[in-house]
Amino acid sequence: MLNQETAQVLKSHSSKPRASSATDVHLQGLLIDEEGTVLNDLSSGCFFIINGRSFKTIRKLRKYWLCEEHPTGRHYRVLGTVKVDRIEHSEHI
């Protein structure tokens, strides 16, 4: 049996589906496991790893984060609901 919140999110998503379910922040909130860290759990200036590449958060942009890849210095927009591995600054250096 679905709870009220889950039913509302699914109803909203099915009435206006997007090209990708990953862009629906509310639906992603339901699908993400309670365990682990997502990018939205971090703050500006935190270091994290996705797929073996290290990044630093710069600032929040609506549902994305502007991030800088290390050591290249290239900037990327990363969806806030992406699972990440947080690393401490001292480990990154």
Molecular structure report:
There is one protein chain. The protein has 93 residues and is an alpha+beta fold. It folds into 2 domains: 1-31, no CATH class; 34-93, SH3 type barrels (Roll). 25% of the residues lie in helices and 34% in strands. It contains 3 helices and 6 strands, in the order H-H-E-E-E-E-E-E-H. The chain has helices at 4-15, 25-31, 89-92, and strands spanning 37-38, 47-50, 53-61, 64-70, 75-79, 83-87. Strands 1-6-2-3-4-5 form a 6-stranded antiparallel β-sheet. It is elongated and about 45 Å long. The model has no long low-confidence stretch (mean pLDDT 80).
Task: Tell me briefly what this model is.
The chain has 93 residues and is of the alpha+beta class. It is built from 3 helices and 6 strands, in the order H-H-E-E-E-E-E-E-H.
